[in-house]
Design brief:
2 copies of one chain form a homodimer. The first copy, chain A, is α+β, with helices and mostly antiparallel strands. Chain A folds into 2 domains: about 5-55 and about 130-240, CofE-like (60s Ribosomal Protein L30, Chain: A, 2-Layer Sandwich); about 55-125, CofE-like fold. Chain A has 6 helices and 12 strands. In chain A, the strands form 4 sheets. In chain A, strands 1-12-2-8-9 form a 5-stranded mixed sheet. In chain A, a hairpin with a 4-residue loop joins strand 5 and strand 6. The N and C termini of chain A lie far apart (about 40 Å). At the A-B interface, strand 1, strand 9, strand 11 and helix 6 of A face strand 1, strand 9, strand 11 and helix 6 of B.
């Protein structure tokens, strides 16, 4: 019976800038499901961002006139709008008080991923990690060094989508695995060639992990056990490979 | 230790029009993980479509001049293009040989969900179910009647996304559960109100299920066990509620 198991790590404390999140992850795993070779660790970007000090105190932000006007029109803190704009390299859509931006990483999401939820302090906002793939690789390597176990690591965030209601967890940083399962060139059981079948496995793993994480329960890390991911290869190794090239993207 | 388990059902035979898929699902579940109350069954739309006879023999299709021109330009079977157009109520994007359409259900996807993979016969294509929510409800009710167990049912398909490479499994039909986990109005552990936190749980469940289904292995049904979904309610009960209203959708 082929099965995959999803576990949340419990009791990870509030993370502060400079904290060693791998120590907290290993301590929590020891109290729970452990960490086995081939496990996939899905880590909410927020604890990574906090550990990396990617927090901004809005008290120190002077909004530009553009940010001030947008904030006033739509009832948003102009200082937070300013931070959103500073994290963006392009505004993809700006309508009805919504800012869909392209971040400096190339991610397309609401508000450049800038978020005030699950952050202590009244006017502190959290940014995305500077380089989520590097953050994932850092966690992966630290776990390998300290435990001798090779795992894959996904840094996740919850994004809205075009055309569909609700947000879903996606992989913004990936290390130690192929983020895809690529069936292009294979035939189905009837012999028909599978032309469009490149599955974004890392996004599906991030989505699966969300089912045990919860938004209110301070469970920022999940373990996926029993999924046989592929080895990373050239052009299929990191979260950035999940981002569609602008030239191919019909909706950018 | 909070855990969710994903199991694929093995040995489901090729489904033909008129087949009783619930009988096949129950027989396979009996040989494997069983079906328990509160389980979520994720069923690939393809076996539903086949059972419902949503197959088209291209030999009987005469392409319109528009379909013929597009097919010839891009090296696609003009008869299949014709079927795609017949399943669409609107073309959202048409570029580089790609047809992104809005189906009669309101789903936005490539080729109206029309697909020749995993279908027997040289020139047979498979359409989406006519009403995936009704199909999900049919399966849910039949399982309740035959086993006495209340489960949730998701009919899934793999869709491409704007901005991101690869396809992911999403929920096109839902019955027996709230397709969302709605945290709007709740506060996070720091007391901050969660304004944008409505998770598309049914899509995350569909994505998770894909991890055990595989594209080549004829495992069209998965069971998700241990996830405490919410009860369906007005406006949050079916797959159609996952489709964004055109008026709110910035990318339609």
């Amino acid at each position: 019976m082929h099965g995959v198991a999803l576990y949340a790590l419990e009791g990870i404390p509030e993370i502060r800038p400079g904290d060693d999140i791998v120590r907290e992850i290993l301590a929590s795993a020891d109290r729970g499901p452990g960490i086995g070779p081939g496990d996939i660790l899905v880590v909410t970007h927020k604890i990574v961002s906090k550990a990396e000090g990617r927090l901004v105190d809005l008290a120190g932000i002077v909004p530009s006139p553009f940010a001030a006007a947008f904030g006033q029109t739509w009832g948003k803190d102009p200082r937070q709008v300013e931070v959103v704009l500073r994290e963006a390299r392009r505004i993809v859509k700006m309508a009805n008080g919504v800012l869909i931006t392209e971040t400096k990483h190339g991610l397309i999401c609401a508000n450049s991923g800038v978020d005030a939820s699950n952050v202590p302090g009244d006017c502190i906002v959290c940014l995305l990690p500077l380089d989520p793939d590097a953050s994932a690789e850092h966690v992966r390597r630290a776990i390998a060094e300290r435990t001798g176990r090779e795992v894959a690591v996904i840094i996740s965030d919850s994004f809205g989508r075009a055309w569909r209601n609700g947000i879903v967890n996606v992989a913004i940083g990936v290390a130690g695995m192929d983020p895809f399962a690529d069936y292009r060139g294979h035939n189905d059981p009837h012999g028909y060639p599978l032309v469009a079948s490149r599955l974004a496995i890392a996004d599906e793993l991030a989505a699966a992990a969300e089912l045990v994480m919860g938004k209110l329960d301070a469970r920022p890390v999940a373990i996926v056990r029993g999924y046989a991911y592929g080895a990373p290869s050239e052009g299929a190794s990191h979260g950035r490979h999940l981002i569609m090239d602008a030239a191919r993207d019909l909706f950018r």
